[in-house]
Amino acid sequence: MTHDTYDVIVIGGGPAGENAAAYAIAGSDRTAALIERELVGGECSYWACMPSKALLRPAHLLSAARAMPGVSEGLAPGGLKRDAVYARRDAFVSKHDDSSQVQWANNNGIEVIRGSGRLAGERLVRVGDRTLQARHAVVLATGTAASIPDIPGLRAAFPWTSRDATNMHELPKRVVIVGGGVVACECATWFAALGADKVTLLVRGQSLLPKAEPFAGERVASSLRSHGVEILFGTSPQSVDRPAVRDTGEGKIHGGPVTVDLGNSALEADEIVVAAGRAPSTNGLGLATVGIEEGRYVEVDDHMTVRGAKGNWLYAVGDVNGRSPLTHMGKYQARVCGDVIAARAEGHPFEDPKYRATADLHQAPQVVFTAPEVASIGLTEKAAASEGYDVAIAELDIAVAGSALSRDDFDGHAKLVIDKKTRCLVGATFVGPDVGELIHAATIAVVGAVPLETLWHAVPSFPTVSEVWLRLLESLRDQ
Fold first, then answer.
1. Is the pLDDT of residue 1 over 80?
2. H helices within 48-178, ranges in order?
3. How many domains does the chain have?
4. Residue 261: which CATH number?
5. Residue 186 is assigned to a ligand binding site
6. pLDDT attached to residue 410
7. Domain range spanning residue 432?
8. Which pLDDT does position 76 carry in this prediction?
9. Which of 309, 322, 341, 376 gives the lowest tally of CB atoms within 10 Å of its CB?
10. For position 182, what pLDDT does the model report?
11. Cβ distance 380 to 215 under 8 Å?
12. How far apart are CA 172 and CA 317, in angstroms?
């Protein structure tokens, strides 16, 4: 058994882990090890953000082209060319070759170690038969994994998870999707766009995107239905049966037809996709060796230091800490974490706000790349009320010169949630084509606590969709 020492050891080589390692040793002679059991670059690069958006974007562009006179007439008949879409997707995930990511790590002074890392005591990490020791910090960045509900026959049916759906090589003609959140809605969007004959969403609750403003889920549901997607609310599988099941590999149909019992009826499909949430990847991580409970999210303070661990050497960033399960927020946490590690290693004070992650609590932006897109930041009206805010609301359809010029069928809606006491935004939601490009302005307004009186002087360019900001502010003049 060998014994190696590094200044910083990071378990988990996704975007959060990469950023934590890079920031912790930047501009110094400190050493870092990045431990990864699969692909360096993690879930986002190969199985989530990148491949899903590569599947969704072609459909958005085709829809926009069909809504533009002078362009629509020149379109070839038919829909998307699946092979070309898959090929572009495969290029973005580098065909699951992480050599460029490994080269990036090496170029930044980070050693990549293949294997499953686990804690073995204070500042100790085991990888296979090796024991590594950290001089300054160990960072947990192991993320989450798709949850499979405990439904009779479901696991035995080898259902698809988001990994299969984003990396599909065979399109199921009939597909049942279990869930009504972001992953389920995006999956339904690209299955329909790529030519599935029947897409059915089984939603346990009564709305899509339940954490968003109600109008967001309603508009996404309406759009999905217009593209032939069936949505069954208040519905969960009672059991699943698939006699001819086969492990055919990621993104390939896993055997023969699957029957989903709904209690009073049944559905037969070529594949079932489970998009029913995620669980932290902490089992087997050795947390018990440092007094932390296994199998749960790892609680951290705003420095990303793990609560309950003695000393200031153990950190957790990204989805594994449960604060904000978004890639960009995990990277944000990692930048804070890396700076804190560096400051502590060098004996520098770290009272400055840059050493505390706060935006991942109520100031996290998110874009759902459905058609229409849903872009949001901060609190919904309901969440703000439950937090005790006295709020004013600005809400209207997006109907400005810029939206009309962008496409003939533009249909969108916007809502601002304002704290009456401070006159600052605490939340914003936009729904419509390409509204993801609007959300950063709202993010700056929320994070910067910009009062309405100042926002009046942030004049939107004409003719852009951003002119909706002027209309929203105008609606507040008498409030």
1. no
2. 49-66, 82-92, 99-107, 162-166
3. 3
4. 3.50.50.60
5. yes
6. 97
7. 372-474
8. 87
9. 322
10. 98
11. no
12. 36
